[in-house]
Amino acid sequence: MAMADSKVATDKFLVCVGGRLSDSGVVRYAARKAEGARARLFAIHVETPGEVLSAQESRDRAIDHLRLAEELGAETATLAGRNVAEEAIRFAREKGISRIIAGKPGRSRLKSIFSGSTLERLVRISGDLDVEIVSGDSGEAGRTSYTIRSQAFPWSDYGAGLLFFVLATGLCLLMYPHFHLSNLIMVYLLAVMVTAIEAGRGPSLVVSLFSVLTFDFLFVPPRFSFTVDDAQYIVTFLVMFAVALAISHLASLLRAQTRTARLQERQAAAMHGLSRQLACSRGVENIISIGVEYISEIFDSHLIVLLPDSAGKLKTAGGDPSAVLQNDIVRQLEIARKAFESGKTTGWGTDCSPENEILYAPLQVADLTIGVAALRPGEPKRLLLADQRMLFESLVKQVALSLEVEYMAEKGVQLQLSAF
């Protein structure tokens, strides 16, 4: 079975695979759906830290499922992260996925209440993405599918925080006859830290409050009362809560930095993929098409390439101009002309027309400017970052270099023909 040609495919489907035996059926189902909808199919497997402890057989099956998806026409990728659902949604956003297909997991209800299944979290954070859950162990017959509506409140995250809080309280009850109260505070702070890392800021704040109240009620004399005999414990409560808040904030920053590191890792992989695709492509039209597709996906934006015609006027050579040049086209072309003539990036956030909503980068090789790439960012603030601007310019230079090689090859052919 082959998927529809990517040139005519408009929708993009994503299938998430793992080490379950039933995932091969899920892959075949997704391939049939993509072929019927003439959509591009992506298949991903997310490697989590816990997967290192799983059986080798399960990890091998995940690789086999990715290989099967590739044979059925899918573009495959292996991601790394702590949360499968978050990595899948992030990948879907970057690639412009319209539908996610996943297999129904087999988990106990008790475990799902406290930690939340990957499927529940995937549906909850999917937003406007369609999530299709496929049940059954066979991909050929007897397969049904259904869609779960997103839940507004993250019950699983707060359930995980409650579980950590209960475990900390139980440990403190065991330690109470043998340890000083300051040691019990450390246990609660550890629970807050773990909750902040695993479940986020909201659940960790709730655990912080519960920890202070429980510590007062169960362990501070007089016990089983919210009153205190010694006023110094009031300071202890305030410091304990302040430290818990600080831990929660730092853990949230750590999660944000981790997301940034993964984004940079994906961008590096995208640059490698662009170089590989350009190296295998021939023809100006194909090179521009590949460049537009890859750069648009990396920045979740719209991109067009402008090349000069015989009269020197910039004309659209690739991409959808209506998605980029939406307002005041004459002025936008003037800014693009400045980028072409100066050989410098102009537009959004630059020294030249910084208020403009479009970023223009010259397709430049050495001192020769071939054309201009115009990017309308999906997230404008993102392109204000220096590293993002440098990444965009580097990708544009890769496209420019491929175009220059193609032009030189065409001139060589013309010289050979003229020699005869």
Structure description:
- The chain has three domains: 12-152, Rossmann fold (3-Layer(aba) Sandwich); 156-256; 284-419, Beta-Lactamase, CATH 3.30.450.
- α9 (232-279) runs parallel beside α13 (386-419).
- Helices cover 55% and strands 15% of the residues.
- By secondary structure, the chain is α/β, with parallel strands linked by helices.
Condensed summary:
By secondary structure, this protein is an alpha/beta fold. The protein is built from 13 helices and eleven strands.
How would you summarize the topology of this molecule?
Elements: E1 12-16, H1 23-36, E2 40-47, H2 56-71, E3 75-80, H3 84-95, E4 99-103, H4 109-115, H5 118-124, E5 130-135, E6 144-146, H6 155-175, H7 181-199, H8 201-218, H9 232-279, H10 284-299, E7 302-308, E8 314-318, H11 321-324, H12 329-342, E9 346-347, E10 359-365, E11 368-376, H13 386-419
Parallel strand pairs: 1-2, 1-4, 2-3, 4-5
Antiparallel strand pairs: 5-6, 7-8, 7-11, 9-10, 10-11
Bin the helical content: 40-55%
- Show unreliable segments: 1-9, 107-116, 138-152
CATH top level of the largest domain is: Alpha Beta
- Our count of helices gives 13
The fourth-level CATH homologous superfamily of the largest domain is HUPs
Please tell me how large the radius of gyration is: 27 Å
N- and C-termini, Cα separation: 47 Å
- Quote the average pLDDT: 78
CATH T-level fold name of the largest domain:
Rossmann fold
Oligomer: single chain
Biggest sheet descriptor: 6 strands, mixed
Order of helices and strands: EHEHEHEHHEEHHHHHEEHHEEEH
In total, how many beta strands? Answer: 11
Specify the overall morphology. Answer: elongated
